[in-house]
Amino acid sequence: MEQAISDLRQEAGRKVVLLHHNDTDGLSSGTILLNVFEKIGFTVERFSLEKPYPQVLDKLFARSGEIIVLADFAGKIAPLISEKNKQKNLVIILDHHPAERVIDERVYLLDGELFGLKGDRDISASATCYLFADLLLRSFGVDAEADVHLGVLGAIGDGFFVDGALAGVNRDLLNSAVTRGLMKVTRTETGEEYSIKLGTHEYPAAEICAVLDTIGGVGYYQNGTDTGIEICRNGVSSETAEYAEELKKRQDAIFSREIEQIESNLITTEHIQWFDVKDRFRPMGVKMIGVFCTLIKDMDFLDHTKYLAGFQRVPDEVPGFDRIDFDASKISMRVSGYLTEKIRSGEKPGLYDFLPEATAGIGGFSDACHRLSAATTVRVGQEDLLIEEMEKVLKNKGGTE
Predict the structure, then answer these.
(1) How many CB atoms lie within 10 A of CB 377?
(2) According to CATH, what is the number of the domain 2-217?
């Protein structure tokens, strides 16, 4: 991080192109970085992405002489980014997903997974961004701790708890936030609950995460991420609360309709149970297929010994960009509580162990994947083929009996 900051300060331009994810972790990461760059006098061109699709990267890396910062994704595709960038821009990737190393003096991959940390337990993207922001501001002689609570919020949103409580770097930042009066911790029978101060008000952190995930996901194509940044900065106004409630009603209606149909739409293979919502989740963003899988993964009508997968069509648009022809279907995968324990004990492969490989095997795109949650994209019409490819990879790897 110190080397990346040294190079950043030597850049002639005072403008940053910032791209971040659209869930709680991505929105809190984006807010931290937006705040820090504005504080040191940089202008920021900001985009929120559901995934760093290759078609978006092609448009992005047609630029030259820019400072490009990507947060809460892109760790796995750092080599692809290096190839597309051709050393034309200074690129800084701040991620917490399993990543692939890259040797390129113009691409910095700052990901705890490469430094002995678990990105789904010890450190979130927002924590990573806070550490970076803290170092950057210190290099200017400025205090960054005003945003330390946002460094914690992403971990809560992603559910990175060990025995019901935050751990690792996430815990360190929580302790700092509590010391500064920005967060509070309440002990419960199952672990801990957290409250957070945003603007002049204090909120249950879990409620803020729910609002941010709804606004960023359901409202992705209706300027939802702009509202999410505003919430991270100033809290929830009556207008944003009403907006979030409207979006939540839309989500609940769409999800309820799908749950009624899913038993007849569910397809089962040896190790996987899957379904395809096609365009039925519109106008919600494709983040929502993962949210839906999380909602249903432990329901009684599913086989808890099998991996769960859902597909959703990717709309041919990204807010802030011209029309992009994706012709893509996103797969999101989740695991039941039963499989979670099997994966953590090493008895079963995690999603990261087979979904990216299977996706690559049929020419698809993968970036941010964890052991217990993962998502990639393939061309429309390749859904069955991807399931077959995953079954092949699982059979070759063993450990699925």
Answers:
(1) 26
(2) 3.90.1640.30
- Rg of the Cα atoms in the chain: 20
Query: Where are any strands of DSSP class E within 267-372?
Result: 267-268, 272-276, 307-313, 328-334, 365-369
According to DSSP, the β-strands at 15-20 and 328-334 are unpaired
Cis peptide upstream of residue 319 (ω within 30 degrees of 0): no
The whole-number pLDDT of residue 40 equals 93
Average pLDDT over every residue of 304-331: 94
pTM over 0.85: yes
Cα–Cα nearest to 245, from 264, 272, 227, 265: 227
Contact 185, 205 (CB under 8 A): no
Burial 219-253 (b: 16+ CB within 10 A, else e): bbbbebbebbbbbbeebbeeebeebbeebbeebee
For residue 163, how far is the Cα from the chain centroid? 22
Residue 144 confidence (pLDDT): 64
Nearest to 210 by CA among 241, 182, 174, 186: 241
How is domain 269-397 classified at the architecture level of CATH? Roll (3.10)
The pLDDT tens digits for 16-44 are: 999 999 999 999 999 999 999 999 999 99
Token pair in block for residue 118 = 């678990």
Query: Dihedral angle at the C-alpha atoms of 228, 234, 238, 241, nearest 10 degrees?
Result: 30
Element (H, E) at 87: none
- β-strand pairing of 307-313 with 328-334: antiparallel
Question: 357-363 contacts: CB < 8 A, separation 24 or more?
Answer: 357/393, 358/386, 358/389, 358/390, 358/392, 358/393, 359/331, 359/386, 359/389, 361/389, 361/392, 361/393, 362/386, 362/389
| All CATH 3.90.1640.30 domain ranges in the chain, comma separated | 2-217
